[in-house]
Amino acid sequence: MIEYKQHYGLTDDELATYPTVYRPDLFKGQVALVSGAATGIGRGIATLFARLGADLMICSRNHERLTKAAEYLRGFGGRVLAEVMSIREPEQVEHLMDHTFDEYGRLDYLINNAGGQFAQDAINIPYKGWRAVIDTNLNGSWYMMQNAAKRWRDRGQPGSIITITAEVWRGIMQMAHTTASRAGVIYLTKTLAVEWAPYQIRVNTVAPGVVESSGFNNYSDAGRTTLYDSGPMKRTGHVMDIAEACVYLSSHAGNFITGETLDVGGGLSLWGETWPAGKPGYFKTDN
Fold first, then answer.
1. 3-state helix, strand, coil in the chain (%, to 5)
2. In Å, what is the CA distance from 226 to each residue of 174, 219, 235, 261?
3. pLDDT for 6 beyond 50
């Protein structure tokens, strides 16, 4: 059994060999675009799709990390294209989509994983930081969704969109910016699922709870301490938990699911709390 605590994400070897119930050729001949695939959850998702036979388009803002991810993913035998870009820029999103369809002639699955946030008390979030998170998580996701949908519509091809959001049902302390953006994506998804049903485009979200990955390096020791006890299972998840949820929604098993949010949070929506910047004294039970 893999030890999660202080692990900060699965290694490449663990990603490559982690047990899965899905057959190796599930996505053979199909194409998946995974944004933010250089590290963390996105890398895990891209790995599982590659293991299951998909050809990939991956993107990230970091050239060095993206190049290394592409080299790793090609080791599973499929074709992997990589583009350095920012989903905040509509023109760059259009180029990415054109590149994907020009090279592959199709796109079957869009996995909107790219996003970002930082831990800070809401009252101290600067204007620039707020705009950056909203622009990435909400606007960027929308640019990707609309551009893929237009091309599917124009070609008469079906498609599936999955956006990685968050468990926002009870709020996320010290993450007001990401809560606002992720909630926007969830309800955008419900709207698009209806509007785009005539085009045979399914639109869903996956909402991770606390997933231990490279992003854990961004939190203080005090913040990480609260994350390990974030839900009733008293542990974190890992990137393959999210990857397998995406495969489920993308495969025939999820063929009649649209407009939904799949929570993968170990019960965080029911019980528990997170304080990624450290729990304030006011809320500590020993006061």
1. 45, 15, 40
2. 12, 11, 10, 25
3. no
φ, ψ for residue 104 (rounded to 5)? -105, -20
Structure tokens at 38: 């250089």
Q: Are 80 and 180 in contact (CB under 8 A)?
A: no
Token pair recorded at residue 245: 């949820």
**Are 110 and 145 within 8 A, CB to CB?**
yes
- C-alpha–C-alpha distance, residues 160 and 149, integer Å: 9
Q: Which helix (H) or strand (E) holds 161?
A: strand 159-164
Q: Which of 269, 280, 179 is nearest to 223 (CA)?
A: 280
What single-letter DSSP state applies at residue 52? T
Quickly tell me which residue has 């963390």 as its tokens.
Answer: 40
The tokens 């489920």 sit on which residue? Answer: 248
pLDDT digits (tens, 9 = 90+) for 204-220: 999 999 998 777 767 77
Note the pLDDT tens digit of each residue in 100-144. Answer: 999 999 999 999 999 999 989 999 999 999 999 999 999 999 999
Domains recognised in the chain with CATH numbers? 22-283 (3.40.50.720)
In terms of residues, how long is the chain?
A: 287
> Which residues does 235 contact at the CB level (< 8 Å), separation at least 6?
4, 5, 228, 266
Mind spelling out the 3-state secondary structure of 224-264?
A: HHHHCCCCCCCCCECHHHHHHHHHHHHCHHHCCCCCCEEEE
Q: Amino acid identity, residue 40?
A: G
Q: What is this structure's pTM?
A: 0.94
Q: Max CA-CA distance within the chain? A: 62
